[in-house]
Known about the structure:
- The chain has one domain (4-34, 77-169): P-loop containing nucleotide triphosphate hydrolases (Rossmann fold).
- The relative contact order is 0.23.
- It is 36% helix and 32% strand.
- The protein has helices at residues 15-25, 77-94, 111-122, 137-144, 158-169; strands at 4-8, 30-40, 43-51, 56-61, 69-70, 73-75, 97-103, 126-131, 148-152.
- The protein has a nine-stranded mixed sheet with strand order 5-6-4-3-2-7-8-1-9, sandwiched between helices.
- The protein is α/β, with parallel strands linked by helices.
- The chain has five helices and nine strands, in the order βαβββββαβαβαβα.
- It is globular and about 45 Å long.
- It starts with a strand and ends with a helix.
Amino acid sequence: MTTAYLLTGSPGVGKTTLIREVLSKVNKKAGGFYTQEIRGGSRREGFKIVTLDGKEAVLAHTGMTSPYRVGKYGVDIGSLEDTAVAALDRAIAESELIVIDEIGKMELFSPLFRDAVVRAINSSKKVLGTIMLKPHPFADDIKRHPAVNTVLLTRNNRDAVVTLILEWLK
């Protein structure tokens, strides 16, 4: 039985936007987090974590010094664990729908985050999230999990995917 829908696709295709749209249309207690760009004018300078209960933390930034790096961004594993992992733990305990946006290269530096993803998927609660398109051992294992349905989001199938997920959440 599918208990998790994970969206994948090219950067900028609208995965996070789709999740936020679905959340605005369903009447379920949801918990977890999404990621949001930090912009400096027209340039992307980093990413922040925004929990569904209103907490925020910087996940990665061009000006951040960290042993964990993805491209030009330093990644703050402590902020990820204190904010996103804590939000996932609360959602597993208290919510009907767990939102994980995203299971990506930055987040996967954290063993605590990886453990929280597995706990969420194995919780039998519904999970809606995004997962990296490129191959990665952990992400590939999650995509193959029997409870997970991975959907490749494109600009052409966006409306159909919204409908599919709204039906699944009924």
